[in-house]
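Subject: design request, 500 residues
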């Protein structure tokens, strides 16, 4: 048995051997010299041999696969972006003014764009895979014919709102909840081109001198854009989509927004020519409810709609749609909602429907309701039925008239018959929570009476969805007599508290 010093020396000699030599042989050789024909089983020697082998084996380099994949992906992405840019330029050269020809049919334009795309892509030096070719074709088509990276979300029926917070931040509303989108604009200039394309089609503009704009898409979807310097982190674009086929009263019943009994009651109220205000917060579904209420209007009446951006989708035959207009670049030529309400009184309307009352037009709306134009409907932002009337008073004062508050309240109490208040819950659902009668003045206060109220005592389920529903308070409204003058009656059982 060799001494400890001999074993250490053997381990050093084996460590100095050329890489690639057998570690077992290097460790066993000294033992063979010490005692020919024998094999040492000394644990210390075995440990030394293993240590020497570990020193001799070169350290394995970090796996290059992940890094290579990232590099290849970045290279491929850059190539795709470069290809898109060159194809885009070539497309503009070949089609030129046809892309902006208002008289050209959209389907014909789409065919020509795709034909030129296929030709240009076919002449590329480096071939594309079928998936890359399809991707490039779709993205360039969306840029030329649509609205760039947000076009797929506008086509998606599950997306109800698209919010762009600068070129690199896009959010979506799905089922009432906000989720980030896996998409972005190339840069701020790309986003600005998309905004300009949207607003220019309806004669609006947005630039540093007029950095905010309200517009709409051809399908009626509402668009709001704010550009720098007001938008600090890049242009902000918000698109609230509207279904091509508007929601009906049956859809709202299915969603739980209202019950069959309240639907029957509201139908009778519209046919009975009551003046109705639909109130609620932003995104509560006021415009959808206004659309549904408007569907109850008989076909033999003349309807005039007044909006900032035309969104209402009425199905009646006799509808006149008016839209306000902002001032031009010289600050002139603006036509406000108030101007349109005044003008509508000269158009022999049976019903006046105002998309949203938000300023001094409230005074003209009250005047219309009080001068024989019963059955008018409008929407208004507020937190509840009582706040709805308070906001109406405030907006009347914005008209600059030096009217006493009591006179305004008397006008409101005389003009408005019903407030339909809508709320958006945390689970994303939109529900009508109050159907309230506006009664009369008692002293200096307008008295209100709830006819239907949302009962939330059932709480929420395991996924946070509300289990409440609209219930009758058991009180019968006093405007039933007014409805009777229009030959409209209501089943008294609608107001029974135990009715489901």
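Subject: RE: design request

Done. Sequence follows.
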């Amino acid at each position: 048995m060799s001494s400890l010093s001999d074993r250490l020396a053997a381990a050093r000699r084996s460590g100095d051997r050329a890489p690639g030599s057998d570690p077992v042989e290097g460790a066993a050789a000294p033992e063979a010299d010490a005692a020919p024909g024998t094999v040492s089983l000394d644990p210390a020697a075995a440990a030394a041999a293993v240590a020497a082998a570990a020193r001799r084996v070169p350290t394995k380099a970090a796996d290059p696969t992940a890094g290579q994949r990232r590099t290849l992906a970045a290279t491929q992405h850059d190539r795709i972006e470069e290809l898109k840019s060159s194809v885009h330029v070539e497309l503009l050269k070949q089609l030129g003014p046809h892309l902006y020809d208002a008289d050209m049919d959209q389907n014909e334009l789409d065919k020509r764009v795709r034909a030129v795309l296929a030709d240009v892509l076919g002449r590329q030096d480096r071939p594309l895979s079928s998936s890359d070719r399809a991707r490039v074709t779709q993205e360039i088509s969306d840029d030329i014919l649509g609205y760039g990276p947000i076009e797929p979300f506008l086509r998606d029926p599950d997306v109800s709102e698209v919010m762009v917070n600068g070129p690199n931040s896009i959010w979506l509303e799905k089922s009432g909840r906000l989720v980030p989108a896996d998409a972005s604009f190339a840069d701020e200039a790309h986003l600005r081109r998309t905004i300009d394309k949207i607003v220019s089609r309806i004669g609006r503009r947005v630039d540093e001198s007029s950095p905010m704009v309200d517009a709409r898409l051809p399908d009626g979807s509402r668009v709001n854009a704010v550009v720098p310097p007001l938008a600090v982190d890049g242009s902000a674009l918000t698109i609230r989509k509207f279904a091509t086929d508007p929601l009906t009263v049956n859809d709202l019943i299915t969603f739980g927004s209202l019950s069959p009994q309240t639907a029957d009651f509201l139908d009778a109220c519209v046919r009975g020519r009551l003046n109705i205000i639909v109130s609620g917060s932003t995104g509560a579904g006021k415009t959808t409810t206004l659309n549904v209420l408007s569907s109850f209007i008989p076909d033999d009446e003349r309807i005039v709609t007044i909006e900032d951006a035309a969104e209402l989708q009425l199905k009646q035959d006799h509808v006149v749609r008016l839209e306000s207009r902002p001032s031009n670049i010289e600050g002139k030529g603006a036509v406000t909602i108030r101007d349109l309400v005044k003008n509508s009184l000269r158009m022999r309307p049976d019903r006046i429907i105002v998309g949203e009352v938000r300023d001094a037009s409230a005074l003209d709306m009250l005047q219309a309701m009080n001068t024989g134009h019963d059955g008018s409907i409008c929407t208004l932002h507020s937190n509840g039925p009582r706040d709805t009337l308070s906001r109406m008073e405030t907006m009347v004062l914005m008209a600059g008239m030096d009217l006493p508050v009591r006179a305004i309240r008397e006008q409101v109490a005389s003009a408005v018959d019903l407030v339909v208040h809508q709320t958006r819950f945390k689970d994303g659902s939109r529900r009508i929570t109050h159907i309230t009668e506006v009664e009369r003045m008692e002293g200096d206060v307008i008295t209100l009476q709830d006819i239907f109220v949302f009962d939330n005592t059932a709480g929420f389920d395991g996924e946070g969805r509300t289990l409440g529903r609209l219930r009758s308070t058991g009180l019968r409204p006093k405007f039933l007599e007014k409805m009777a003058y229009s030959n409209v009656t209501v089943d008294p059982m609608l107001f029974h508290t135990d009715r489901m």
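The CA atoms of residues 90 and 293 lie 50 Å apart.
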